[in-house]
Specification:
heterodimer; A: mainly alpha; MetI-like fold; 12 helices; 69% helix; B: alpha/beta; Rossmann fold; 6-stranded mixed β-sheet; 21 strands; 34% helix; globular
């Protein structure tokens, strides 16, 4: 056993059957996150399956009731069931969160990649534009947009998407610049690969990698931005039970009925957390735990 | 063990450091150092030699109480002077370190605080141990120390930040810091690794001088040749155990343990030309011995460079010429070595040969066709005729990709059929000696030697006629280096490729090359057949370079 050969561990020991491995390797937290996501998915597609009450049905005999068996998450100032309203609002909230994040990422990719790869002039122009946009608070940009184009779910998505894009764009630009100088990009160039192929195969995926977790957090953040707009009266109009609107509506009763604030807040946190846990797990599973301390 | 201990040279009466049956383990894991014993007297130098993972650095760190918070250090005896180190608390260790035992850490760049002036770093030990009174006195002492380790312009360098010093100067500053309090024992962990050979020679000289002044020295190294020059006694370690011990003459003249013999054989040099370095890896085919048929002069060279010049503008805006009028021809089936120290421009020549850099003047032709003078678009389809193997394969792999995808990616458009491509990947992995099961691993999950094999598989996949190797074995342990060099030799014999082989290691170049260019400060100072250049160097620089190479002093 003295030979200085490469010691190769038996590969069979490392890689059991994929399905067995999947079952054994999914941590409990990922399973839980999956269950939460599935719940919200059902709530978005088929709210009636989960609701215990009619979300718009007022009941003046049961106003501002604390959570109980009859009303899981309590009732609001007109006696509507908070839990059923949350379920009802899932579709809009997820739509705003995912839509705004997707739009934000799209814009950021366009700007960031153009700046990172488009040469000195494109980089200078885009970077200065991003600097200017950075001078305005995100909320201000979103506000401006809603004021100009009026209130609707679509405007909210665009408003929040545009408002949060500069931050991501700047990160993507930095990543693209870093990845562009990486050894594997030069190796691909030395192999004679076309620039378009190198961008597609190496630069884009590696530039976006570190952003995946930020983006999953961004989904929750977008919902919070939308609720911020609702707070200013520029969100989706009541009685729509969008989560942000629920937060806004419960604001006046926060000292008497904590559940009106806490329950929608928990829904946002639970959703954002689940997306993050799943996103991270998928990233590790698909690409290996690399490049992260 | 007993036999080995008997071989200990008769110890002088005044033993400074005595280690008896030292064992170190981390947490619940197996011991990483087992039963190591030695003693050290003033004016003596002990060398601990081994490859990565041999436990040599942990041994050194255990001697100064730096093995780490999770380490469990046990010994039958561990004494410095009259004190029992086994009883030491943190406070005692701090008193010992610096003042009585100086420790030179590996990797000078990381070990110096990048935001502190070098002089402050050296002076800190003086301050902490309450020596050298006032600030001005300390500064004077620091300059004196830097002068003693022969850092040029010590007063200026003391005020500079680590990145403003060269690698050799940083290493010398670290030694100065370790010597600041005049300790009786100096422990140096890989003191010359990553240094150029002439700088390495200077650092070794400095260490020898330190020993001559009556200090005891412990040198940790993977490099047998370095150690053979300064050590009085050598311990060869592997897997945490001392396999062999003795004087350099004993170890190099008549190694008793097979591992020591293999380590010695694995060192490439002129003696090993045309032979295999690692006996463990049997050749897959009969490699022709000796050099290939001399270039007939009838076939055009596969790669040819004429009067290459390259300038780079530095951060200060001043253009520096890094490559100056470099010309060479690489014939089919030939290996052309380029040796030089860091900053000699050899890597820039490699990048120009690969057309990753455009020469400011001069031209490269590949397979008789213009190469540097055409547009990238024209070059792209021809790039498959020339490949590259880097020093650091890991950074040249997309971290998301598996071995399979990395190799498959470089196959090019043919064959188009998926099954055929997969079979070709298997064939290539087999050719470089990687088991098929490795195809699903990611590079991060491989060892250094395995990564370099993947890099080689990727380089030969497009069936190039020329492979540019830029320091391909510099980051590898000597036995792994031997395997990779053997593999490169085999592939050349089997595939008939030509290598442009760039290295700072004269032994490696001598082992593999047919002809060699010696570069210094961007210029070719000497070129010719490898034996001629290295055995009878004509240029003064080559003579200096060859003289600076530490050699194994073998008997016979």
């Amino acid at each position: 056993m003295n030979t200085p050969t490469l010691t190769l561990p038996a590969p069979g020991a490392r890689r059991p059957h994929p399905l067995t491995a999947l079952a054994a390797s999914v941590p409990g937290s990922v399973g839980l996150a999956g269950a939460v996501l599935l719940f919200f998915l059902v709530a978005a597609l088929w709210p009636q399956a989960l609701q215990t009450h009619d979300p718009l049905q007022m009941d003046l005999a049961a106003v501002l009731q604390a959570p109980s068996a009859a009303h899981l998450f309590g009732t609001d100032q007109t006696g509507r069931d908070t839990y059923s309203r949350l379920i009802e609002g899932t579709r809009q909230s997820l739509g705003i969160g995912l839509g705004a994040t997707a739009l934000s990422l799209g814009l950021a990719l366009l700007l960031g990649v153009t700046a990172g790869l488009g040469g000195r002039v494109a980089d200078a122009v885009i970077s200065r534009v991003l600097d200017v946009l950075f001078a305005f608070p995100t909320l201000f940009l979103a506000l401006l947009f809603v004021t100009v184009f009026g209130v609707s779910v679509a405007t909210l998505i665009v408003a929040v998407g545009v408002g949060t894009a500069p931050g991501y764009a700047r990160m993507i630009r930095g990543q693209v610049l870093a990845v562009r100088g990486a050894g594997y990009v030069e190796a691909a160039r030395a192999l004679g690969h076309a620039p378009a192929r190198i961008v597609r195969q190496h630069i884009l995926p590696n530039a976006i990698r570190p952003l995946v977790v930020m983006l999953t957090l961004g989904v929750g953040q977008s919902i919070v931005w939308a609720s911020g707009l609702a707070f200013l009266g520029l969100g989706v109009a009541p009685p729509s039970p969008e989560w942000g609107a629920l937060l806004d509506a419960g604001r006046s009763y926060v000292t008497r009925a904590w559940w009106l604030e806490v329950m929608p807040g928990l829904a946002i946190v639970a959703f954002a957390l689940s997306v993050t846990v799943i996103g991270r797990h998928l990233q590790d599973r698909l690409e290996g735990k690399v490049g992260r301390p | 063990m007993t036999a080995a201990r008997d071989a200990l040279p008769a110890a002088p009466a005044d033993i400074l450091l005595r280690v008896d049956n030292l064992t170190v383990s981390f947490g619940q894991g197996p011991a990483v150092v087992r039963g190591v014993s030695f003693s050290l007297a003033p004016g003596r130098c002990l060398a601990i030699v081994g490859e990565s993972g041999s436990g040599k650095s942990v041994t050194a760190r255990a001697l100064v109480g730096l093995a780490g918070p999770r380490a469990s250090v046990q010994a039958d005896g561990l004494a410095f002077g009259g004190e029992d180190l086994r009883r030491f608390a943190d406070r005692d260790w701090r008193r010992l370190r610096g003042k009585h035992v100086g420790f030179v850490l590996q990797d000078a760049l990381v070990s110096l605080d990048p935001l502190r002036a070098v002089g402050d770093e050296i002076g800190e030990g003086l301050r902490l141990h309450g020596e050298a009174g006032s600030r001005a006195q300390r500064q004077a002492r620091v300059v004196e120390l830097l002068e003693r380790v022969r850092v040029p312009e010590p007063a200026v360098k003391a005020r500079q930040l680590p990145h403003e010093l060269s690698g050799g100067q940083r290493q010398r500053a670290l030694i100065a810091a370790a010597l600041a309090l005049d300790p009786q024992v100096l422990i140096a962990d890989e003191p010359t690794t990553a240094l150029d050979v002439t700088v390495q020679a200077q650092v070794l000289e400095l260490l020898e001088e330190t020993r001559a002044r009556g200090k005891a020295l412990i040198i940790i190294s993977h490099d047998l040749a370095v150690v053979s020059r300064v050590a009085d006694e050598i311990l060869v370690m592997r897997h945490g155990e001392v396999l062999e011990r003795g004087s350099p003459a004993e170890i190099f003249g008549a190694p008793r343990h097979p591992y020591t013999r293999r380590l010695l054989d694995a060192v490439p040099s002129a003696h090993s030309r045309g032979t295999r370095l690692a006996p463990a890896s049997a050749p897959r085919w009969a490699a022709p011995t000796g050099s290939p048929a001399a270039p007939s002069g009838l076939t055009p060279p596969v790669l040819s460079a004429r009067h290459l010049v390259k300038r780079f503008r530095g951060p200060d805006g001043v253009a520096r010429t890094v490559v100056r009028d470099v010309s060479f021809d690489l014939q089919a089936g030939e290996t052309l070595g380029i040796v030089g120290e860091s900053g000699s421009g050899k890597s820039t020549v490699a990048r120009i040969a690969l057309a990753l850099e455009t020469p400011d003047s001069g031209a490269v032709t590949l397979h008789g066709q213009p190469w540097s003078a055409v547009t990238e678009r024209e070059r792209r389809p021809r790039r498959r005729g020339i490949s590259v193997i880097y020093q650091d394969p890991l950074s040249s792999f997309d971290p998301r990709w598996t071995v399979e995808r990395l190799v498959e990616d470089s196959l090019g458009p043919d064959p188009a059929d998926r099954a055929q491509r997969s079979a070709r990947v298997s064939e290539l992995l087999d050719l470089v000696g990687l088991p098929a099961a490795f195809r699903h691993r990611r590079p991060i999950e491989l060892s250094g030697g395995q990564r370099q094999r993947v890099a080689i598989a990727r380089a030969i996949a497009p069936e190039p006629r020329v492979i540019v190797c830029d320091e391909p074995v510099s980051a590898l342990d000597v036995s792994i280096q031997a395997q990779v060099l053997d593999l490169l030799g085999d592939l050349k014999a089997q595939l008939g490729v030509s290598y442009l082989f760039i290295s700072h290691d004269l032994g490696v170049v001598h082992h593999l090359s047919d002809r060699v260019l010696v570069m210094n400060q961007g210029e070719v100072v000497e070129s010719g057949a490898v034996d001629e250049v290295f055995l009878t160097p004509r240029a003064p620089y080559t003579q200096r370079l060859v003289a600076a190479v530490p050699r194994l002093h073998r008997a016979g």
